[in-house]
Amino acid sequence: MSDLIINVPHLQTFQQRFGAFVVTVTCWLLWLYFLVPIVTLSGWLMGLRQLAKEIRWFGGYKSLMELMELYGEAVLVIVALWLCWTLLTSLRRSPPGQQPPPVGKAELCQAYAVAPADLDRCQNAQRITVHFDDHGHIVQMESAAAADEPAGAAVAPGA
């Protein structure tokens, strides 16, 4: 993974990491489970003898096609649940009038331990690269391509 992308999994809680692991493993197992009949049917169509036995074990071609219909229905149910989840999530967001007030520059400087002049310079830059330490704190900011600034100017926080 690129060093320019924030990747600090050690800052996540145990529940977040464990939840992500369980969801990932479940999705991969579900994906493999759905692929078995397709691989079997493809092998049978290509004339692989061992997979022909599998087709017979599944109860023949028609039984396998019924199983694939069932899988298709399961996929449709999953898509419907996902769409409902997405719709509910978008409805649960607060309306635009109830959003929290915007954060001021002084609060940003205090929260990230950055000098106000450095924050102004980085906000006016067209491109900025922020480097973090292992604890998620800003150690260096590089801004570039502003009209009045030389490319690659590096700014250490609080400097």
UniProtKB/TrEMBL annotation:
Transmembrane segments: 20-46, 67-88
Pfam hit, one: PgaD
UniProt-listed InterPro entries: PGA_PgaD
An example Gene Ontology biological process: cell adhesion involved in single-species biofilm formation
Keywords per UniProt: Membrane, Transmembrane, Transmembrane helix
Domain of life: Bacteria
Record-given protein name: Poly-beta-1,6-N-acetyl-D-glucosamine biosynthesis protein PgaD
Source species of the chain: Methylogaea oryzae
